[in-house]
């Protein structure tokens, strides 16, 4: 951009030396040590992510991929997670494109090993956990406008930074040296041409509405970023302050044709929910001896039942095809409002005492909206044949179909969608504060120290609105409700506070009755992270006879305490809301760890350096563990270097892993013993608790959701990982540099669950009590109707994983005319992505280049190719090609994906222009060709029939910003 901006300077550096070289021209914000060469020239030593030993070059024995502030700004993304998810090594975690199950946070999932195994740093120090639903770092806290660069270290780094750096480290380096005043205002939005003939045809078959033609510009967002920095007290001190504001406007699934209906599991039809506008009923007679133990659902004769709905005259009719298209009200992109403020200050009292401070505050408010609540077949209700809510034609039907007469009762499950009310909404709020105070300086000519105290806390809340309170339904339909506490209920007609819920009358439910059914659940939580860290680093006055540089070292210690409290109100704690799948428990817990660590950098030869490291960690709950590393760099020639590394890394169980009480929830998948023709034999299903009478008569969940009982485990131990790397860094010809790195991650004792569906299948196939004891069926044999049936699915140290691949990062520049073209290719190839869920009992499965119910859609090969042309004048342009290789499908139900997902390419174009010395403009279009995301079936979609937030989700992305600087 224009002459005096940080963006312009970085563009010129990037074009002159390549993105990686440009990043190495400045320090990373850590305390820098200068030493004189033989001719008296000052050489700055910097601290590279992955080591606390300061060095004179950016290349290290562990590969570090750098994204400069130029690339950040040119991307047009103001949400940091969008920028990171465009990197080939990262899979989509929590993003703004999540609604159902949204935590309100944004997370980084490096290598697809899970956000909990990616350590997030700010200026080389931890970022605290996120909120009530997440124990991972929330990168919403990062002010994108002040990020100097992002360093991604791929591979274990627990020796340097402690637990959780299994997949690697993402370090956000802030521009703590910023000088002057800079203000940026930006606007972004999406545009898409709705012309998907495939899904429009499916919706036409169901008479569903959908948009056509251009969407206009929607899903808009606006951002304002302010930075002020300068020196004071004669240059002894320096301070930078920032303030940011961003607002995202909501976009619902009804805004795109490809998300306007919820595809069924196979992706071949518009599916829907059995909780329909016109209610559905499972109705059964009752065994004569039901009263012997009314808590047991085997009181009901489910071999004699029907599945009915109502016609316009309120007669019972067959309910086949009566489903609700719940997609349109769902958020495709959540509305979000966020502001942050902060400051970075340092002051040099003398060479021995340089105090510093970092403070960051963020407030974020978002809302995740999904389809309306309903009765969700959640409870068994007993109604009198003579009930005033049942009309004469319905009584006649009960007599003819079930043999009931006056004085009898019948049992029913009810599926009614609350379209008379408003959609469900989870209102999420996060307030985070992070403070670091410390000092650093020289101990003597050879050694320096750094001591800091860090405190980070996030207070968060979730208010869940417009969900039905299950206990109110039975009373409102004048029924006895069969629960684990026995029979409950009362006569609505005699209770003046009860509004009848007339589900047995066609369109008989009023808005007033719907409002009387809903309640609000509230969660409040707070995380706190306290870290005391100190270390000394420097060089010994000793050099090996074969080398020309002294041995360098780091010695340090750290104390860290993690605390988490989540308080659920009575509504959440008791699972009173119908759409929550069960109780959401309160959680209280903490753990602490004391650690000592050391690193050594040993020049063995002039061309060979060994890096060694060790960390001993003593956890107050899990006991002690050790991590260590050995790495080396061999300078084969002036322009060629070979590097290799081995790391022992760990992930400690977080507070949620350890202390979450068991609670009822939902899992997505299939019950292989349900349906008229079960997948397994009667004998196999008998292992899972299915009786001979129930076999072939167990109803499958229309939404593919079943009950599970999940929770933490205080006996969990840290996960263990061995990570290996071998690579080449080269500058074979002028203006070309590249690195190729092979990496391997092998994990054991992975904290995981058996998996509910896996538990059912292993029980059926083996009959082992290890699995069958965890399958609890209701009296109807169901795992989803009501809450009596479920699968116990707690956490254990049980699984193994082997991840393997190759990364490439290359830069080339070429002079063309009056300017320079700089090209950068960043790619990642997955060789193996193998999970062994139950070693010795189950077969490992490999997810490299595969999509399934178990595998995220990470292709084997993925890259970005960026070409930037600049003349050093008032303008520059950039083109980027983002490529996702093809993905195979592994499964039987998603026939839409029978041929997998074809390769996807996206083209981005950007331009920067100087208006004058103080004003610059950036405009750009991502996904210029308006490519929509690949469609997937209901069992694989994360939102809107797509792998949302990974592939481009909403179509063409337009962005523009204006920057003013003095």
Question: How is this structure best described in words?
Answer:
It is built from 14 helices and 52 strands. It has 2 domains: 6-257 and 333-369 and 428-463 and 524-657 and 717-755 and 793-965, TonB-dependent receptor, beta-barrel domain (Maltoporin, Chain A); 670-703 and 756-792, no CATH class. The model is unreliable at 1-43 and 289-303 (pLDDT under 50). The chain has 966 residues and is mainly beta. Helices cover 10% and strands 47% of the residues. It has a 22-stranded antiparallel barrel. A 7-stranded antiparallel sheet has the order 21-20-19-26-25-29-30, covered by helices on one side. A 5-stranded mixed sheet has the order 4-11-12-7-8. The two termini are 14 Å apart. The longest helix has 12 residues, at 6-17. It is globular.
Structural class by helix and strand composition: mainly beta
Low-confidence stretches: 1-43, 289-303
Query: What is the beta-strand fraction?
Result: over 45%
Query: What is the first-to-last residue Cα distance?
Result: 14 Å
The CATH class of the largest domain is Mainly Beta
Oligomeric description of these chains: single chain
Taking Cα atoms only, what radius of gyration do you get, to the nearest Å? 30 Å
